[in-house]
Amino acid sequence: VIDVNELNADDGIIAELIPAFIEEANELIASLEQLLLQLEDTPDDRDLLDALFRCAHTIKGSAGVFGLDRIVAFTHHVETLLSQVRDGQVKLTPALGTLLLQSNDAIRSLVAAAQGDQTDTAEAEQARESLVKRLREATNLTAGVTHSDGHEPENVPDNLTPEHGIRRWHVSVKFEADTFRHGLDPLAIINYLGGMGCIPNVVVDALAVPALDSFDPENCYLGVELSLDTAASREEIEQAFSFVREDCTLHLIGPGSGPQDFVDLISAIPDNPRLGDILVSVGAITRAQLLQGLQHQADALDTTGTAPLLGELLQSGTGLSNQVVAAALQKQQQQRKAGGSAEDNAFIRVHAHRLDEVINLLGELVIAGAGASMLARQTRQRGLIEANHQITRLIEGLRNSALKLRMVPIGDTFSRFKRVVRDTAGELGKDVQLEIVGGETELDKAMVERMVDPLMHLVRNALDHGLETPEQRLTSGKAEQGKMTLSACHESGGILIKIMDDGRGIQREKVLQRAWERGLLEQGHVPSDEDIDKLIFEPGFSTAETVTNLSGRGVGMDVVRSNIEALRGTVTIDSTPGQGSCIEIRLPLTLAIIDGFLIGVGTSKFVFPLDAVVEVIEGQRVPTTQDSQGRSCIELRGQVLPVVNLRQLYALESAQPERCSIVVIRAANRRYGVLVDVLLGQHQTVIKPLGLMLRSLRGVSGSSILGTGEVALIFDANALGQLAAKPRQTGSAPMRLHSDVIATSSADITGE
Amino acid sequence: LPNNHALPSELTIFTVSEVAPTCLTWIDALAADPRSDALMLDANAVTEIDGAGVQLLLSLSNTLAQKQRSLCLLNPSQALSLACKSLGAQKLMDPTEPTR
After folding, report:
1. What are phi and psi of B70, to 5 degrees?
2. Do A190 and B86 touch (CB under 8 A)?
3. Which is nearest to A588 in space by CA: A728, A751, A718?
4. B17-69: per-residue pLDDT in tens?
5. ipTM confidence score
6. How far is residue A253's CA from residue A279's CA, in Å, rounded to a whole number?
7. Alpha-carbon A153 to chain mean position
8. DSSP single-letter state for residue A463
9. Is A703 helix (H, G, I), strand (E, B) or coil?
10. Which chain B residues touch A173 with a CB distance below 8 Å?
């Protein structure tokens, strides 16, 4: 009889732990998918195959703990197949890869069902049943080709003849009690060894397994002596045990070793009195040799008082030097480090809101620090100023590390698209290769998450509209396989994400036609090519002749653009008809704190993102030169540089000083100068959102509070650049930005 | 058959904890019958078996041996035979045949 209270308590604990399981399972499902996709390129990579199996195994195991029987039942079939794939009994063909990817999706939806996000429908169950059938078929195919025959000594595979360096090894392995609990199976390991060659003899130490009254079925008591005929090296044989290294005692006796080595083995494992008999039964040594050897050893012990050490034993018969062994071990460790994907990297899980809390506090600290530093300067006490400098430096370091906590490489997100590209291209009958460049580029996690949907849409769009079918490509003289590149890199304090394809590019006639039809353009009006390309980002625009289920999801490119702009980013498209398109997305690195460059115009203060500042020219006269379009410009080292006059742009009411400075800014491959009165230097800038009143202000992306309590506006280098490039519109009123407006609306700006 | 018991289809680390108590009841039943000297188990249904499963059979066999009885696996399935062979536990399949 089960105590009801206890049961309820258990349920409570399980309910508490389920979210952690879901999270883990989702990570494992994601890595399973990545591994499968990676294996498409390298189907024989053993490390990947091992990792693949472990993913499925862990999902099944943890689902079992929580009693999620449907997940266990289904994943079990995947695991069985994967173990055969790992052991080389089943070849991982592209078709099998597809089946496994589909099965992985089924696991994913089962996990989602466990979370309560989805209900498990009858169709889903049917789909699973058919998957199980196919998984079984794939597994059954190989039932007759297991190692069963391989164990017969006479049945040495053709390619493993003595000329190929087949040698006989003796493997003595004793598994530790926790082997099963660690998810490992001695049987699978021996089968794996069998795959390296042929196991003519194998004997289990049957008497080491206790009788049922003192037997824990989940403890492992197994120990095995076996002969292995293989061309593999000692290192490769040891590698077979790499997952159980901590869970077993392994002795490997090399080829050409004499009876003495086995005698040494026996003395090295003193707690196994049956070993001698087992070795005899496995055929490693004859009983006479054994007895003779033991006698010799007893004699030797009598005279010297020492038995051979285990280390000497391990190296016996192969002539390996200590150095070689050490080097091999080290190499093995490194390989294990590199090969262990998800599990080996230790992470601490921290709730995102705790991180945000730290970053918010840090923002306040930066502002308070700036205030304290200014007060210190006013006291003119050197010691105090020094101390404040030190604090400022430390805050800067703290800021950088804290912001890094939120940074994640964008590669993880990119690699999700491998699957999207693979499946989508397949559905559309297209052959597309996805290349990923700069996946290690780091970006704020919140930003990465919010970029997934826009990127997904852009990738699908490129696949659907941009890239052609293989026949179309061949007729236009291109390679049959289309190419798509996702790249990321840092660019002037932000990140640049590019989605490139070598498809047909934007069909401008079609775009124009559609724009006229939809009334986006005046009938018959033909704008510049660049403007036509921009039309695809307009609301209510879709060029697909038949709305496929890929792009026809009600999310237009206009939503993509607004999503990106909501992250203070920009999106542009560049297309060459027949050659392909390139979509460029520029995003700020973080949404919280930046290194800024503080300047003053009249009584107003502004901040440029420091990374956008190329150089500063001091003590200039106010430029009077204008180009043909009425834009102010100066000559900088033989080149014309457009100059923005902030006083004019924002109608700042203060007298223009005689001398001023020009800050040269680079943004989106464009350079321009900004006319300023004073340079106030580098400044750690905590970005606060703009209040409603100022949100429509062009060229400005946020605000910040200075140490003095003043408010400074932060420029959006790209947007300001666009303003600089615009011809001066005579007659239109400049944007009003009275210094009083800033002062009175500081509460509005900061939302406090 | 005097004691007609059957092994389940799955004998793996996931099921051994459930099967082990059943094995004990079989042994108790056998002990109550002085005429039989072997535990007959229908082993035809075993489709999945791992190291833990083989180990359970070894333990069962050892337990029976202590009681001067033996384990007799009838119609062993291919999966079971293969697993025993791989692990060097052929003795389970036919206790009379020497291991070498």
Report:
1. -130, 165
2. yes
3. A718
4. 999 999 988 888 888 877 777 888 888 899 999 999 999 999 999 998 888 88
5. 0.90
6. 12
7. 47
8. I
9. strand
10. none
